[in-house]
Amino acid sequence: MTSAFDDYRNLLFAVAYRILGSASDAEDAVQDAWLKWSAADRSGVSDPKAYLTRIVTNVAMDQLRSTRRQRETYVGPWLPEPILTTAETADADSVSMAMLVVLESLSPLERAVFVLREVFDFGYAEIAAAVERSEAAVRQAAHRAREHVQARRPRFAADRGRQREVTDRFLAAASGGDINTLMELLAPDVTLWTDGGGKVRQALRPVLGAEKVATWLAAVSRTSYEGVTPAEMTVTVTEVNGGYGLVFTGAGRVISTLTFSYDAAGRIAEIHNVANPDKLRAVASGVPH
């Protein structure tokens, strides 16, 4: 039965990560699921996928309740932990930084139901068994979650060619301090979120508006960061959280990531910058999910 667990390990991580927004916590949830699976009497388990999904979902919901209390004292904006992805990642929008931030505003139950229903297409009866609620309660939670997400996360998915073009132009403009080009690429009401967790120097509040964001980015590109000079820093365009993003490295470590979401005109509407070193381990591993 070890092979059954291995068959669904990637699914379990995918479910846990979307519920928790943290790769390290998702790995812990998968490990807990393995321990429970190993200790259980599996003679009556006819559907290992449903059984394992139920375990990891409940573990992740419990973890989310606990970590949310910790996040109340977090220094500056809290952003999800970035992961490397591939073009084949299932439902790339569901793993985007912008979507994960919206999911943070759902209750643990609503978030689990939304992930299982909208991302992985589980039936309501399957979800009810997984979260140990009635099917009616699950349907109500799914309705609330769907309405909330649709209200806060309009779906403007720039095609991959446009994403790559904008990312490349953004990198060139930001590296060269070209504020005019940055202004062309940014939506007028763009928001930049930075997460240093109080461990590295970052903006403690969102930076709002194209002019302020462009100026901030141009200034940062000329500044040494945590002992690494701009000349010593390498920037790579790669797949991060379901779309093209930037990974900054220097002095033998990952320094930060930048990810983007877009408006209907294909301009950058949101930028999420994660620099808290505790949140960069999954990217530093080099293993895509």
UniProtKB/TrEMBL annotation:
Keywords: Sigma factor, Transcription, Transcription regulation
Positions of the RNA polymerase sigma factor 70 region 4 type domain: 98-148
Coiled-coil ranges (or none): none
Residues of the RNA polymerase sigma-70 region domain: 5-69
Keyword hit for Protease: no
Top-level taxon in the UniProt lineage: Bacteria
Gene3D superfamilies (alphabetical): 1.10.1740.10, 3.10.450.50, Winged helix-like DNA-binding domain superfamily/Winged helix DNA-binding domain
Record has Transcription as a keyword: yes
Subunit structure: Interacts transiently with the RNA polymerase catalytic core formed by RpoA, RpoB, RpoC and RpoZ (2 alpha, 1 beta, 1 beta' and 1 omega subunit) to form the RNA polymerase holoenzyme that can initiate transcription.
Family: Belongs to the sigma-70 factor family. ECF subfamily.
The protein, known as: RNA polymerase sigma24 factor
The organism of origin for this protein: Paractinoplanes deccanensis
Record lineage: Bacteria, Bacillati, Actinomycetota, Actinomycetes, Micromonosporales
